[in-house]
Amino acid sequence: MLSTEKRIFIIGTQRSGTTLLRLILNSHSEISIPEEATFLMPLLKKKYLHKKIAGDSLKALLDYIKLNAQFKLWNYDHGDLLPRLADKKQLMLKDLIDEIYYSYCHSKGKKIWGDKTPSFFRKLDILHGLFPEAKFIHIVRDGRDIFDSWRKMDPSKNNASVIALDWSYKLFKIDRSFKKIPEGNRITIRYEDLLDDPEKTVMQICSVIGIGYEDNMLNFYRTSHDYIGDHHSRLIFKPLDRKNKYKWKKNLLPREISILNFLAGHYLKKYSYELKNNKLKLNDLIYMFKALTSGIPARIIQILRIKKTVEKAVKNGTSVDSLPVGKAPKGARDEKKTGDDN
């Protein structure tokens, strides 16, 4: 019988180790967490908390899910899930989400479903409203390593000034929402602590979830291929290595470090990260101002384009095979995609 009491949400900024944590938890005999579910973002709104989805809206939504490329990445036999949901004629959002995740969970022979979708950071209040008993696990990683890792996979993120504000804003949103969640239902861990003392850290997570720790959880890399594609970091197919942290010290330019320390210093300090050289020279300030002037509008436009694309697909019941992406900022230092981070 599937559990109706335990649900898990892994929260964190992009490149913070959320995928790694998903695979660790997936190695537990009771937990099943699929690929990301960004396709649900248009539904996570207050107006849907107590509103039934029915008629043409339900049909379009189910068509959208069926055709969605991201849902296909879940890569499981969902059988009669969507036809069965269509037969219900009307659904509450909570029931719709439960049905989808439990379908995946059941396919893996597990009891507890979980989610790992970084963009849900701004939907925590909605998720907590839908599932007040759910457990929320927030994983934090040094913002300078976030920048170093993110730009390797996406050239449009090669702007230290914008990423510093992006990282800080997301942590602000998560921290504010976490205060509304009961202490027993949430935990914040650091990526670096997970690498340094994985058994202790994972035990703490299991305690919050309310399940027993299993030794096999740290052997996650042996089953990574069952839950994820080869397009992800090669590190998730290997044992944890405490050396995979603080790479920013050798990979970032002095100017980039100074800018990140200056703009993201509050959260670097809050989460006990080393903070030095957060004073900027005049030419660095001018450089930072120019980077923000060009980078922030580009980032906002990118986000709005993605939102518009997805919301249009939901309304029309059509697929979203790709999303708009940004371009590398002019003058950005070239970085090869190495895929060497979680």
Model description:
There is one protein chain. It contains 13 helices and seven strands. The protein is of the alpha/beta class and 342 residues long. The strands form two sheets. A five-stranded parallel β-sheet has the order 2-5-1-6-7, with helices on both faces. Strands 3-4 form a two-stranded antiparallel sheet. The C terminus is likely disordered.
Summarize the entry for a quick read:
The chain is α/β, with parallel strands linked by helices.
Which key terms come to mind for this protein?
342 residues, alpha/beta, Rossmann fold, five-stranded parallel β-sheet, two-stranded antiparallel sheet, 7 strands, 8% strand, disordered C terminus
Supply the number of structural domains: 1
> What about the largest sheet?
5 strands, parallel
Distance between the amino and carboxyl termini: 33 Å
DSSP strand count:
7
CATH H-level name... which superfamily?
P-loop containing nucleotide triphosphate hydrolases
Major sheet strand order: 2-5-1-6-7
Instruction: Provide the gyration radius in Å.
Output: 20 Å
CATH arch. level architecture = 3-Layer(aba) Sandwich
CATH topology: Rossmann fold
How much strand? 5-15%
Question: What is the helical fraction, as a range of percent?
Answer: 40-55%
Mean pLDDT: 89
Poorly predicted ranges: 324-342
Q: From the helix content, strand content and strand pairing, which structural class follows? A: alpha/beta
Number of helices: 13
Which CATH class applies here?
A: Alpha Beta
